[in-house]
Amino acid sequence: MASSYSKTSEYELSTIIAGGVAALLVPILLSVVLTGTKKGKKRGVPVKVGGEEGYAMRHARGPDLVDVPWPGATTMAALFEQACKKYSSNRLLGTREFIDKEIVTSSDGRKFEKLHLGEYRWQSYGEVFERVCNFASGLVGDITLILGLGIRSSGQIRVWRIQDPYVLYNKTR
């Protein structure tokens, strides 16, 4: 009986050791095998650039240097003008009419202001561009008048309501 007991415990011991070795080796072997087969996306490519010696990386789909978003658009005004010409029928600026305001008290006693607004009224790129041009022409006329009258100006224009669509026209020019 003693000999069968020792054979059983030896069998259990060898099973435990084999299981431990397998638990250690299987993940290591799988990681070695799968590391070589994994293909990642090529995102950056080295490019030669002029000037100082160095190493430059650019995106694989566009290795050329992009210094302007569109050819010929070197200023924000030129970029806005090109966008308005290209997307003249697309929606650009949406405004909503103020209907009502109410104060709502939450369950913990804090008070919040809840606004009721109307539906969006959209203006297209073309419409906004026309209004921006008209607004800019008016500013040029005002400046010409001020300079013609000899009035000194600080050179600053202050804007108080950034949410107003007319202020947005001013900001784009």
Q: What can you see in these coordinates?
A:
Strand 3 and strand 4 form a beta hairpin. The model has no long low-confidence stretch (mean pLDDT 77). It is flat and about 110 Å long. It is an alpha+beta fold. Helix content is 46%, strand content 21%. It contains 4 helices and 4 strands, in the order αββαββαα.
Biggest sheet strand line-up: 1-2
What's the alpha carbon Rg, rounded to whole Å?
Answer: 35 Å
SSE sequence, one letter per element: HEEHEEHH
Question: Describe the biggest sheet?
Answer: 2 strands, antiparallel
Based on Cα principal axes, name the global outline: flat
Structural class, by secondary structure, is: alpha+beta
Amino- and carboxy-terminal Cα gap: 100 Å
Oligomer: single chain
Mean pLDDT: 77
Uncertain runs are none
Tell me the β content.
15-25%
Give a topology summary.
Layout: H1 2-37, E1 44-47, E2 56-59, H2 76-86, E3 91-105, E4 111-124, H3 125-149, H4 165-172
Antiparallel strand pairs: 1-2, 3-4
Helix pairs in contact: 2-3
Features:
flat, 173 residues, alpha+beta, two-stranded antiparallel ribbon, Long chain acyl-CoA synthetase 8-like isoform X4, 4 helices, single chain
